[in-house]
Amino acid sequence: MRPGKMIILLVLPVILFGADRVVLLEDFTNYLCGPCWTFEPTLNNFVNSHPDDLAVIRPHVWWPGSGDPIYNQNIYEQWHRVQLYGVNSVPWLQFDGVIKASTSGSGLNNAFNNRITVPCFLEIQVANSTAGGAGSIIITLIAEQDLGGDDIFCNAVLIESNIPGAGYWSNSVFEQAFRDELFGPIGEPISFGPTYPDTLELIVDYDTGTFDFEYVELAVFVQNHGSSKEVYNAWFDYLGAVVGIEEGEYGVADGGVQLHVYPNPSTGNFTISILSLPEPTGELNIYDISGRCVVTGTIEEGIYTDFNLNTSGVYFAEVISGKTVTINRIVVLR
Prior knowledge:
Layout: E1 9-11, E2 23-28, H1 34-48, E3 54-57, H2 69-73, H3 75-85, E4 92-95, E5 99-101, H4 105-116, E6 122-128, E7 134-143, E8 152-160, E9 163-164, E10 173-174, E11 177-181, E12 188-190, E13 198-207, E14 216-224, E15 231-238, H5 247-250, E16 258-262, E17 269-275, E18 282-288, E19 293-299, E20 302-308, E21 313-321, E22 324-332
């Protein structure tokens, strides 16, 4: 803190999300697949029993019925997932890219249990730049160590549930249906290292269009597209629940305020310089990528130190003075 100033900044504890594993389940199905429909109650019960540690995507295929409405709305991106695993029958249940589960309750549980206990060294954080049906998704990936392999991609898939069914589902609905891979058919190639922990930030635009926003979910996962096909970790939530620094609430305003952070990136210890405030005092807030305020206080023009954020990730420093709001991004690499 700058000497001679009696300004108190309240530093709130930063929660380390850690590398808790979320398992990716891909259910390949088709609207005229009788065994898929028969297995649906068992599968739904399993999915509903794992609200916090399971990400679910249900790509559709072109057989046994070529008129599948989900497949026909996005052919190539679902075709790529089929080709990635060599899917040649449905239902086909793939856990974290590496386990093909049998179509039984015990098969689902065994596959899940085999993956959830595998140590995870990748943390995924997701924020939404808006609160509506279109905007930008900000994805922060923090690798604690070398994940292994060079053919690594980040995928971000929009999924829609409660879609009126067809075929065997004609009196029901399609759940977690594959809608759109935001990074394109394959995903976004990424690489980590050579020093760890290493943080990457990806930003991708989205538009839910005609999808029912209330039932749109987002699955983000990082996968080796080489020989292993392993998913290193996943993230999953309703798109409307993905919060962050919203443009309407925290947008950068023109007012001449100079807000500088250095060094940036830092290891969590940094200095903030604030000049040209339109009022004698202002308010400084620092938010993590989920929109949670971790630092707050009243400030004047000057230089402030003694910031110590102990979790890697992307943060946003916000200065409010009068009607002026100014924001600068902070990157912490620990």
